[in-house]
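I am still getting used to backbone structure tokens and would like to learn alongside you. Label the sequence line and the structure token line clearly, so we can match residues to local backbone shapes. Would you write everything just below, so we can both look at the same thing?
***
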Amino acid sequence: MSEIVGTKYEVPVKPVEKSLKISDRAKSELKSSGMMDEKGKLKLKGVSPKMLKRMKLEAIDCPVYNKELGFVECYVCSNFHSRISGIVYCKGDPLE
């Protein structure tokens, strides 16, 4: 059982050589919520460009989608609870 209430999974963040592509589903969600402009440039509120660059070079093994995802995609997911010391706390709720 995880330490943080309301989370189902503790997923370690791992570095990757090359950033992973963001899925079309995630891109449409980012654009609709105003976190990505029409040209596809990310604009996450409260995240500096330097931190965003680092986030793009990180990945997780997503327990909900059962595949490797870039951390940016995980960060904007509705299941994302928090990230502490390289561990992502995921709610683990089923998604569409």
Notes: The chain has a mean pLDDT of 89. The first strand starts at residue 9 and ends at 12.
